[in-house]
Specification:
Residues 126-146 are annotated as: Disordered. Residues 134-146 have a biased composition (Polar residues). Keywords: Membrane, Transmembrane, Transmembrane helix. The chain crosses the membrane at residues 26-46, 67-92. The protein has 146 residues and is mainly alpha-helical. It has a domain at 45-94. 64% of the residues lie in helices and 0% in strands. It has 6 helices and no strands. The chain has helices at residues 25-49, 51-56, 61-77, 80-91, 98-112, 128-145. Helix 3 packs antiparallel against helix 4. The longest helix has 25 residues, at 25-49. The model has no long low-confidence stretch (mean pLDDT 80).
């Protein structure tokens, strides 16, 4: 083969045109840049998606769980309204109703003289002979009415 150029071919080629069997540096660079851009956008998306959960992490457990569930629902359904609702819920500080209500319930139990459920003891079962007598008396009662 001859190394002579065709008469209409340009004598100087730009850097991005490679010869046969040569490494195309521009394509390699573009591929690496594309992979890096995809990973960067993915990381940005995950950071943005977890924003309501990170904001609600400082608040109460119930509020955090609701925000987390709204985030998961928005992730799986691709409906952005759930993410917006989670973000708004994370921005609002809900008051703590549980602690005062537990205190009120404890005071009412003390006033009523009721024993809290954790201190309730189970009464021992009646002996088997008493059970048998009472069940036979009930059977006679039922038969007498029939």
């Amino acid at each position: 083969m001859s190394e002579q150029l065709h008469p209409t071919a340009p004598h100087h080629l730009p850097f991005f045109i490679t010869g046969p069997n040569a490494l195309d540096g521009l394509t390699v660079f573009t591929g690496l840049l594309l992979v890096a851009a995809i990973f960067s956008v993915g990381i940005l998306y995950w950071k943005l998606h977890s924003l309501p959960e990170r904001m609600a992490h400082k608040s109460q457990k119930l509020q955090f769980e609701i925000v987390a569930v709204l985030g998961l629902i928005s992730l799986f359904t691709h409906m952005h309204i759930f993410w917006i609702a989670g973000l708004l819920l994370a921005l609002i500080d809900l008051p703590d109703f549980g602690t005062p209500l537990r205190g009120i319930a404890g005071s009412v139990e003390k006033i009523a003289g009721a024993v809290p459920e954790s201190h309730v003891t189970v009464a021992p079962a009646a002996p088997a002979t008493d059970r048998a007598k009472s069940s036979s008396a009930q059977n006679e009662e039922v038969q007498g009415h029939a």
